[in-house]
Amino acid sequence: MARADSEAAEGLFRAFKDGFRWEGVPHMPYKEEGSAPFKAISRQVLFEDPDQACQLRYFEMDAGGYSTLERHEHVHAVMILRGNGHCLLGNEVRPVRQFDLITIPAWTLHQFRATGGEPMGFLCMVNNDRDKPQLPDSAEVERLRQDPTVAAFLDGMPARA
Amino acid sequence: MARADSEAAEGLFRAFKDGFRWEGVPHMPYKEEGSAPFKAISRQVLFEDPDQACQLRYFEMDAGGYSTLERHEHVHAVMILRGNGHCLLGNEVRPVRQFDLITIPAWTLHQFRATGGEPMGFLCMVNNDRDKPQLPDSAEVERLRQDPTVAAFLDGMPARA
């Protein structure tokens, strides 16, 4: 890369900015409608390149926000990047904090909740080529709720670790 | 996942530990020999799964350490996770700090240096299926050194930003 290519290098170096935003990365809040199964969450796609088989995204929830309770065939590789909260995986509820790693296997229901009174954000690596998420039906959610720990999580009040 | 599967969930939640280590993730220091083209660097593979087409690795250099100056066809998607330092990309030298993003395109020489007087660590996403890195020959390094900024970087004394 010649010195004259400095300008071309601009897009290759993208600075971190206040508030967990990045230079040149669009911030995409999810639009909440009547029955939206998520709350106060946004997405930023940090890396997306036809020469790479995966994307790296950053999702962030405001305090009290949560991601959609869903499952899919594709695997999620997650690292908490900001704050702390709780994660439901199958029917296991765990506290999670900055830099913890979470593997979400195929077809496993999962949800993240920013229960720490502050925003919680996480990196999520996924295959470019992936299936669409599926939502649990109400009977399944009822079965999940039979576990008091899971019910408390779904109500936004997980037990203290 | 039934309550009885709590144990199975253990490997899915891997806690961050002091010193930028992770539960269940082997820490692999690179062995330095006579002509090793790197210094004081270690690798931890955070995510590696046959069901994902990419890996996510964490590399860390001690203060003053550096990665190998190399190029390859595969793309690197990098996020600085710890500390700050400098990055050479082509013949562009840039200061980098926590959570900055760096895209390393195909066949572009690159090197990271922990110039901040503290360890610097970064995440690096790569395709599972990738080519081996190639080193520049001495003539090419000489050409790079004709740029005083690059020469200072290679000597471990990059100019202040």
Would you mind describing this structure in some detail?
Two copies of one chain form a homodimer. With 161 residues, the first copy, chain A, is mainly β. Helices cover 12% and strands 40% of the residues of chain A. Chain A contains three helices and twelve strands, in the order αββββββββββββαα. Chain A has helices at residues 6-9, 138-145, 148-154; strands spanning 13-14, 16-17, 21-22, 28-29, 39-47, 54-66, 76-82, 84-89, 92-97, 101-104, 110-113, 120-127. Chain A has a six-stranded antiparallel beta sheet with strand order 4-5-6-12-7-10, with no helix packed on it. In chain A, strands 9-8-11 form a three-stranded antiparallel beta sheet, covered by helices on one side. In chain A, strands 2-3 form a two-stranded antiparallel sheet. In chain A, a hairpin with a 3-residue loop joins strand 2 and strand 3. The longest helix of chain A has 8 residues, at 138-145. Chain A is globular and about 55 Å long. In chain A, 34% of the residues are buried. The mean pLDDT of chain A is 92. At the A-B interface, strand 1, strand 7, strand 9, strand 10 and strand 12 of A face strand 1, strand 7, strand 9, strand 10 and strand 12 of B. Strand 10 (101-104) of chain A pairs antiparallel with strand 1 of chain B, so a sheet runs across the interface.
